[in-house]
Amino acid sequence: MKPEETFHVWVARELEIDDTQIESMRLDAAFDLLVSRFELARRRGSNDPVSTGSTKHAGGNSRLCTKRMLEHLGYTPAERRAVQRLLAGSASGWPGLLRLYAAGIQLSPVDRQYARRQLKVFSVQPAARAGRQ
Predict the structure, then answer these.
(1) Is the distance from CB of 52 to CB of 58 less than 8 angstroms?
(2) Are the beta carbons of 27 and 83 closer than 8 angstroms?
(3) For the chain, which residues make up each domain, given as ranges?
(4) pTM for the complete prediction?
C-alpha cells in the first residue's frame, strides 16, 4: 500500500472491483462509519477497537449501535452482515479489510476469495437495492 493510498483505491485494487461497485455497496460510507466507531472505542480505552465493528466480539450495546448505524445506510440484513464481515472480520478468524488496509497488507489469494464471497451478497439482491434508492 502506498502511504497516500485511500481505502477506496486500495479496496478497488485488492478486490479487483470498480468505483461503481464500491459506490453501489456504500463501502466508503460503511468504512467511515466503522472507523468512527473504532476511534470512539479507542478513546474509551478498548484494547481492540476494531472488534467494536464485529458481530461476534463486540459488546451488546456496541453491536446494536453498529447494527443500527449500518441499517441507516440502507443495507438489508444480509448486506449488513456481509459488510461487517468484509470490513471488520469474522468469527472464523478472518481479520477484515480494515485491519489488512491499516497494516498495509496485500490480500492473499485466500483473503481475496473470502472477501469476494462477501461481495456476492450485493450482486444477488439487485431488486431489493433498487427499491431502497
Answers:
(1) yes
(2) yes
(3) 28-132
(4) 0.78
